[in-house]
Design goal:
Rossmann fold; 8 helices; alpha/beta; disordered C terminus
């Protein structure tokens, strides 16, 4: 895994950061985390989406680009890198939250910045049911997320599914994560890690044998 750039992606509260942290620790990789907490418009967006969606989206886009620019300046072959987001996912939320005029302007900015983004060697997409996302979001209990309705989480989850159904830019591992816990159950993480280490190209799906377990 030395020198590989691995991205963990998925909808709100699916467990991206938790898995990225575990992977980085296990692989001795550099960890790159999205700077969501630093976005001054995020809380305002959840209070008034129509007013603050564009500002929140542009802040995220520029923040993600800055991190990608820094990655591009480094020798990625010296150490593996694990991130809990990738640049292309920015489009998912932009399409979901911006009106048509805002989206047209956003796309012009996005195309300029994305051309310089580093492409990952592997994207790990964590998929989960809406009720699981709601449960996990409530469990982590971030104050600004308390305004997020389950219906919005469902929309985000469906937008991710549609995006990755058509995604072909890099190798992709789709993980059915509703019934596994790679934080509290070491066996779940070890099994997933082995799966990640086998993906070389194309699209693979990982459905744990014990995925029918109740959470």
């Amino acid at each position: 895994m030395a020198g590989r750039y691995i991205v963990v992606e998925g909808p709100i509260a699916v467990g991206k950061t938790s898995l990225a942290e575990r992977l980085a620790e296990s692989l001795g990789a550099r960890l790159v985390l999205e700077e969501g907490e630093e976005n001054p418009f995020l809380r305002k967006f959840y209070e008034n989406p129509e007013k603050y969606a564009f500002a929140a989206q542009i802040f995220f886009l520029l923040s993600r680009y800055r991190q990608q620019f820094e990655l591009a300046q480094r020798d990625l072959f010296e150490q593996a890198v694990v991130a809990d987001y990738f640049m292309a996912k920015d489009q998912i939320f932009a399409r979901l939250n911006l009106d048509n005029d805002e989206y047209v302007l956003y796309q012009q900015i996005y195309r300029l910045l994305d051309a310089r983004a580093v492409r990952p060697d592997l994207v790990v997409y964590l998929e989960a049911r809406g009720d699981v996302l709601t449960k996990r979001m409530r469990r982590r209990d971030r104050d600004y997320e308390r305004r997020i309705a389950p219906a919005y989480l469902e929309r985000v989850g469906e937008a991710y599914r549609q995006f990755f159904y058509h995604y072909t830019e890099t190798p992709l591992l789709v993980v059915q994560s509703s019934e596994i816990d790679f934080v509290e159950r070491p066996d779940d993480f070890d099994a997933l890690l082995k799966e990640i280490q086998t993906v070389k190209h194309g699209v693979q799906h990982y459905v744990p044998l014990d995925s029918r377990r109740a959470r």
